[in-house]
Design a protein that fits this description.
The structure is a homodimer of 371-residue chains. Chain A contains six helices and 26 strands. A nine-stranded antiparallel sheet of chain A has the order 14-11-12-13-26-25-24-18-22. In chain A, α3 crosses α4. Chain A is elongated, with a radius of gyration of 25 Å. β9 of chain A pairs antiparallel with β21 of chain B.
Chain lengths: 371, 371
């Protein structure tokens, strides 16, 4: 292998594929980045066996070939060479010479046969969605997946593709997040569960453009095609929880509140509540007024907010963090929150527009902080 | 005490004085911020017993008084209230009510008598120096103080005030840094040793302006007067090392090199050397060419640089980090480096202008990484 490429292109590709390298790897080859030189293209790829990312850049290929470089070192080096032309030349014994300016580094590389081969998808099952909308879908749901391994399926987001829409759902036993986006060019009707970790890495590679990307589904894999970059992730096996029965539809109290004001008030109130346990804050709901109170051994806070109020007065307690996590991913100026009793979850939905765009459900805490 | 002030002013003052609160405090009162309301001024102060910072802001004082608030919580709260008017009202039992918008937090505060009283300096021994120059002096020296407690005096910088100049010197047994700046309005001739930690905090409160500030010296204290902000630090007791005898003046090899090119080359070479021990890099000096080599089990690097060369050829090894630390604080485009033998330290000085502006001395490593 002998190629010349631009440092900036190589750096960009290395940063992109490095997202698939796990933080704690026991197998050294999984810390590697595979480089294939073929015609006038350099293809870089990396994988942690769950997520794989492949990226192509232009290069002047003098001799075709392939090699696996130590990922961390190679990435640190090319990050310092973004203004240079870089020549990569593979010698015998997997020694690769990296030439730049008047200098060079010789690197001991891995043999390619040790590197896991990629799942190649040839599925015709796909749906189109804009980058912006898919990024939005991910941001509204992955934060509420389960973090522990007690029920592995809950570490993923359910994606339901149906009726020209993709619906994402995640839940961790204390809260549920649901988000819906339109899709294009698809008659698919299928449900899969995607690891939240993979979705978060995919999200980092998406921007807020309206450009449509295609997402392919096949057996136990999902593939996102960004043209010069292909991201493949394993799906989680097993049945997701029947989330529809969790979301009730009878509510005795309904309020409309300014999202930012509620978020600011909760942030301040939780400065005290986070000192204690459970991040316990109490909502006191009455006509026109929401009072949020919190306390710890160093003091107590009362935040008062104007609201539009309907239904029965109610006193109910929450973990402030769960509320703030949901509010953080909402862009709307006003939101609706519906309550039933102090023992039942509340539901946050949009104030206007399509009611179905998103829904966040949060279980209450028992008054006085006892679960 | 009852006062009203602007959230932004209060926030700025709290952030400033919080720099004097130590990271690990065993005495809770030292985590506090003292607030004194007097006439139309609110004075905030904090101390870790070595460094004290006091800052004044304007306020509408309705009832004079004083209190010590829990620093961390108070600072987190006021950071979230920068757009609001804030009222502070001290009730009995050291309970302080903080009112903002329609909301309020009640905070359990500390009695003022528990807070350490500040050293009041009334010295007439002072020198004037521009903020920019004092900041520069600090940045060029504090990085090379000793970090361990073996010789406490080496955790400080020597400041020699003499002949209308202030000279700062620090050393840790492996390297030495020296920097000189002009001072104003002073016939002082005195040497003190200031804790590097205090100097670094002072530096963060300085900007790059030419405005002159006055620095007072008295007994075991130094005080920096920034008008609305007073910083006081204890001095270290004991004799500093006679640094002049460390800096030799016979050199057999002298080179001139582009500072940025040398820095970039060392950064890349040290990617390999930092994997091993000592961050060992070897300099090979000959006519017109400096070659820097490094190696580890995963590879080896050779960085070639054009230099202006004079004297004997030389092969000498260094800890790359010590070199990079010094280069990082130099703004000049070109520097001189003088060498004697592979066993003697090298000396980095300015290429042009006043030779005395700065000097960095670095001890070599023995070839092959053995100390």
């Amino acid at each position: 292998m002998q190629v010349v490429c631009e440092g900036l292109d190589l750096c960009d590709a290395v940063i992109t594929v490095s997202r698939a390298i796990g933080a704690r790897t026991t197998n050294p080859i999984l810390e590697g980045i595979k480089i294939v030189a073929d015609e006038d293209v350099l293809t870089l790829s990396a994988t942690d066996l769950e997520l794989s990312i492949e990226k192509k850049i232009k290069a002047e290929v003098k001799v075709e070939g392939e090699v696996v470089v130590p990922g961390k070192f190679f990435s640190e080096l090319v990050k310092k060479l973004t203004n240079e032309k870089i020549e990569l030349k593979l010698n015998e014994n997997n020694l690769m010479k990296i030439k730049y300016t008047d200098s060079e580094t010789v690197l001991q590389c891995f043999p390619v046969y040790e590197f896991p081969s990629f799942q190649k998808l040839d599925s015709t099952d796909f749906f189109g969605v804009s980058k912006k909308n898919f990024k939005n879908l991910i941001s509204k749901t992955t934060f509420s997946v389960a973090l522990d391994d007690a029920r592995p399926i809950l570490k993923g987001c359910l994606l339901e593709i149906e009726d020209g829409k993709v619906k994402a759902v995640s839940l961790d036993g204390y809260r549920l997040a649901l988000s819906v986006q339109k899709i294009k060019e698809s008659n698919l009707s299928v449900s899969v569960v995607v690891p939240a970790k993979s979705l978060n890495e995919i999200s980092k590679l998406l921007d807020d453009e309206d450009e449509i990307i295609n997402i392919y589904l096949q057996r136990n894999f999902m593939m996102v095609d960004l043209n010069d970059c292909i991201i493949t992730t394993r799906l989680l096996e097993g049945d997701f929880i029947n989330y529809k029965q969790i979301i009730g539809n009878e509510f005795d109290t309904k309020i409309t509140v300014n999202k930012k004001q509620l978020e600011d008030a909760l942030e301040r109130a939780s400065l005290l509540s986070k000192i204690g346990q459970n991040n316990f804050v109490q909502f006191d709901l009455r006509d026109k007024l929401l009072s949020i109170t919190s306390r710890s051994e160093i003091g107590n806070a009362r935040e008062n907010l104007n609201i539009v109020f309907g239904g029965k007065e109610l006193v109910i307690a929450f973990n402030a963090r769960y509320f703030m996590d949901a509010l953080k991913v909402i862009q709307d100026e006003f939101i609706n929150i519906k309550f039933n009793s102090a023992q039942n979850p509340c539901v946050i939905t949009p104030f206007e527009g399509e009611e179905e765009r998103y829904l966040f459900l949060i279980l209450p805490l028992r008054p006085m902080g006892a679960m």
